[in-house]
C-alpha cells in the first residue's frame, strides 16, 4: 500500500510539473515583435501638451532601465516675456524643488521645440547646481544631434548620466 501511495503522489507531481512548464519563447517573441520606433516629432508650433506627450513617449522608449517615474520639462521656444519667465520657473524647479529630492535611479526628461533654448536652459540649471548634485540621475535630453557635445559638457560637473536622444 505504501508503494501505491508513493507512485500516485509521484504521478500527480509529474502531471503538475508538466502542466506548469510554459514555454518562455512567447514572451520574448512578443517583445521582439514590438519594434521600438520613435514617435513623430511635433511641429515647433505644437502646444505644450503635445510636446509633453512626445517627451513622455521618448522617455518610455529610451528610459526602460530607469525604475522611477520621470520628471518631464518642456522648454518653451522664443524670447517673449512669457517664454523667458517660464524657463526661469523651470530652472528654479529643477534647482530648488526637484533636484534636491531626486534619488539615484531617477530621471529628468528635458526637451522642446528649440534645441538651442534647451541647451541654454540646461546651462542655466548647471550654473546653479553644486558638483555631483545629479549623481546617479539620468538626464535625458531630447534635442538635435548637433547639441550633444554642448549638453554633455554643460552637465558634466553635475554628475548626471546624460542621454541625448535626437529628434
TrEMBL record:
Signal sequence range: 1-27
Record's compositionally biased regions (Low complexity): 26-46
Stretches for region Disordered: 26-47
Keyword terms of this UniProt record:
Signal
Recorded protein name is Lipoprotein
Organism of derivation: Burkholderia ubonensis
Amino acid at each position: 500500500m505504501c508503494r501505491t501511495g508513493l507512485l500516485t503522489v509521484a504521478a500527480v507531481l509529474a502531471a503538475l510539473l508538466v502542466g506548469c512548464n510554459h514555454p518562455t519563447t512567447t514572451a520574448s517573441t512578443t517583445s521582439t515583435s514590438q519594434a521600438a520606433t520613435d514617435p513623430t516629432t511635433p511641429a515647433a508650433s505644437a502646444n505644450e501638451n503635445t510636446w509633453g506627450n512626445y517627451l513622455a513617449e521618448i522617455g518610455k522608449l529610451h528610459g526602460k532601465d530607469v525604475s522611477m517615474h520621470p520628471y518631464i520639462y518642456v522648454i518653451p521656444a522664443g524670447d517673449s516675456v512669457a517664454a523667458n519667465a517660464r524657463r526661469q520657473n523651470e530652472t528654479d524647479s529643477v534647482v530648488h524643488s526637484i533636484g534636491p529630492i531626486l534619488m539615484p535611479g531617477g530621471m529628468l526628461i528635458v526637451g522642446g521645440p528649440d534645441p538651442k533654448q534647451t541647451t541654454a536652459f540646461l546651462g542655466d540649471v548647471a550654473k546653479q547646481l553644486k558638483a555631483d548634485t545629479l549623481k546617479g540621475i539620468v538626464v535625458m535630453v531630447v534635442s538635435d544631434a548637433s547639441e550633444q557635445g554642448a549638453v554633455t559638457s554643460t552637465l558634466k560637473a553635475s554628475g548626471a548620466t546624460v542621454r541625448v536622444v535626437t529628434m
